[in-house]
Amino acid sequence: MSTNTSVSRRDRARAFVPELIPDPVDLVRSGPLDVREQRDLERIHAARDNHQNARWMRGKALEAAFRRQLYRGEDGQRTRQQYLDDEWDGISESAAYLEIKEWRLAEKIADTCQRPAPDSHVRALVDVAAAHGHEAVARWYGELRRCGAETGRRVTAEVVSNLAEYLSSGRQPELDSLFVPRQLPPAQGRTPSSPARRAGRIAGEPVTGRVVSSGSFQNFGMSRGGSTEPEQEWTLGAEHVAQLSTWLVAEARRTGTSPDLAADLLVNAVSNGPLGDWLRARVENAAAALATTTQE
Q: Where are the domains of the chain?
């Protein structure tokens, strides 16, 4: 057994304490890590894993408090929410039950992979684990991580969601295929829209708004200040609505939620986010690409 392995295993065998984390000081070093540096890196990773493991331990602790009814307090009258307000920084019951729902899978993954999984990975798999077994899903997740490590590909939340979709369908996933980016599902029965077709509000079809004309699309015009150009009615075309609807249904099914809730969350994210900055950046990138192509 190598010295490095001996050191790391001794560290893992004892309870993690903050004193194990190396002091954050500037050092100028080069070349391969020596024995002490290997030990320091192991302890840094132990701090990382300790944080993630504490997440599922919270869920287990919450479930124990709820199911044993220990929340009721000395007078026997305290409710679950009052207990959460007093002892858990005021988290809601729904947030507490989410942690309770996730901890068993997170524990199995930590045992299987010898390191915990990110929260987003656990949440992508938790529903399929409830249906098909936490241990089986943890093994598949471990295989997915092994495949990613062997082929040099990142295991992202989207890749894990692809695994969840395959397991939910009862099919044996081909691990390599899970790393292929998912394409936006094509809308069914798409037909070209016209200004006349977009003008009326037909159920499930157009979404009307007011925009300011700012030059032709080819010129990628964008007004940065107040515009004096006249406003005109604009409607989201039927093909866009159909494509968005198809995508929302597919993503809602994949995450185990309803299309209505998925749509509400999407609208909230778009409405409350800096959409103008996002659009401006992409318009400017498109303009720069067009200018480069023209020069060539």
A: 3-179, 202-223+230-295
